[in-house]
Each structure stands twice: as structure tokens, then as C-alpha cells.
Amino acid sequence: MNTKRNDSIPKDYINIIYGKDVKPLTSYPSIFTKYLFERYDIKAGAKLLDFGCGRGEFLNGFIDMGVEGHGVDFTDAATKFCPNAEIKQADIENDGLPYPDNYFDVVFSKSVIEHFHNPDILVKEIHRCLKPGGLAIILAPSWEHCYRIYFEDYTHRTPFMMSSLNDILLIHGFKDVDVSFFKQLPILWGNLYWIFNPLSFITRLIMPRYLGKYFKWIRFSKEIMLLSTSRKPIND
Predict the structure, then answer these.
(1) What is the pTM of this model?
(2) In angstroms, rounded to a whole number, what is the distance separating the alpha carbons of residues 233 and 175?
(3) Distance in angstroms (rounded) separating the CA atoms of residues 114 and 110
């Protein structure tokens, strides 16, 4: 059986599922990337790769913070939305990343690893392309919280829980691995966390899921992510 990723996911997947008319561009990517930039002390001028960059809106957010932006995906959709970055098209699962060893200061990947038949390939390629001491930021849906809706996206292949995301990073040579639950609600990222997080928890328990279609507070109180950070050892 042929399991090549470029055979199993159509080339126009991004344009159909994430087209501007279906999912309009919002301010969230800029808010989120600014948060990551400041939280992890990413430096202006850092060479950053958005692995599985999709339309490129998160990559644009990092570029606005002053990084040197690069993006790679199995489609070229980001070239329309991300004019200030180098965008490469590649079949990662079969051919690897089209970059040399020890090339990037930061590799960012949001909601990509779960689309791989063999996610070890992604993690090994991230490790290879990072400079020693470089930072990997990998996000994936939390299977523990999203299992009832996980396969609403038919291209999802490999579910992850906190322990499995932690272990795959350790197995492939990363250090300082940290994996935590993460809600895509900016009001929970600052000093108001202790006030609003209990409300989000109650929302997740009692509110019907279908209301998430109309209210982002409900949707993202239920659809919890895993946020992982790790570093390539200095002596690699």
C-alpha cells in the first residue's frame, strides 16, 4: 500500500479547507506568535522555519517580530499570503526537509505532526536542521481532550498525548523537553489566567460542543492543544 503523504492529501487541500472564504484570516496568528516570541525570548534576526506553514499567517506573525522567515509545506499556498518569506514546497515524509544541517535557530510547527503517518521523520528532520542549542516549538491537538472530534479532519493520522509527544522528542535527541496543555484563548495567557481559566474549565464541561461553531470561547475551551518546547543539545 502506498502511504506517501503527497498521495494521501490532495495538493489543493489548503486552498479548499483553509481558503479565505471558508476560514478568513484573523488577528490570532499575530497575537499568538508575539506571545511565543516574548515567552521564549526569540531574538530579532533569528532564522526561523515554519514547518507545515499552510497559508503562512503564523510565519507572517514571526516575521513581524523581526525574524528571518522560512516556510515549507507540501503545497505552495503560503506564497500568496507570505510575500516576505522564503517558501519551499516539499514532500517531507518521503524526501525530508530541503535544508542543510544546523541551519535554523528556531523551528515552529503548529498542528502538523499529527498529519504524518510516521511522525518520527518530522522530529528527526527538525533535529537535523536546528543549530546546536536551537529551539523547537511543536503544537498538536491533545487526543485526551479532542478524541471525539479528532477525525473530523480526515487527514489526521497520528494522535498525540502529553506523554507520547514528550517521548518522541526525547527519543530523537532533544533536551529540556517541556509539554503542557494549551488553550488558544489569549485572555488565558497573562495575569488574568487564574480568573478566567476556571470559567473555561466549566465551559468545557457543561456547554454543548455545537455552540463552538458560534462562540470561540466555547470552541477553544474544549479543543485543547499540546504545546511542546525542546532544544537540540549544544554538543550535537
Answers:
(1) 0.90
(2) 6
(3) 10
